Amino acid sequence: MAENKTKQTNASVDKFINSLKDETEREDCYKIIKIMKSITKEEPKMWGPSIIGFGTYHYKYASGREGDMCIAGFSPRKQNLTIYLMPGFEKQQSQLKKLGKYKTSKVCLYIKSLKDVDVKILKEMISISVKETKKLYPDK
């Protein structure tokens, strides 16, 4: 079985963010860090080369695949800020209606900038995601 490529590293979060060319993107990253840190009560860590994550949980799928991942995380990608909301969006439909400009995939929320969304709703969504992930994958 293939090994999970996204693992927590000792790379510097600040160095990664400061390497971003766009000032607004850097500012948004620091705001998201503040939000996720207050919700998770965890320090930001790099996961792989480009994901900033908070906390960790261990998953095991019915297929037998298992690994560790951050409870909350985001990544400043070329096109969007990608926010990982691990259980997905099934329980967040009312929040999505009020959020603002975004796109989604299975567990990713894509936004261009924090100015495009209601930050209060985003905080609520991250909080719901963290609670649901902890419920699905309780500590052993």
Summarize the SSE layout with pairings.
Elements: H1 13-18, H2 23-40, E1 44-47, E2 51-54, E3 57-60, E4 66-69, E5 72-76, E6 81-84, H3 93-99, E7 103-104, E8 108-111, H4 119-136
Antiparallel strand pairs: 1-2, 2-5, 3-4, 5-6, 6-8, 7-8
Provide structural commentary.
- The longest helix is centred in the first third of the chain and has 18 residues, at 23-40.
- Strand 1 and strand 2 form a beta hairpin.
- This protein is an alpha+beta fold and 140 residues long.
- Helix content is 35%, strand content 22%.
- The chain starts with 12 loop residues before the first helix and ends with a helix.
- It has a 6-stranded antiparallel sheet with strand order 1-2-5-6-8-7.
- The chain has one domain (13-134): Alpha-Beta Complex (Aspartate Aminotransferase, domain 1), CATH 3.90.1150.200.
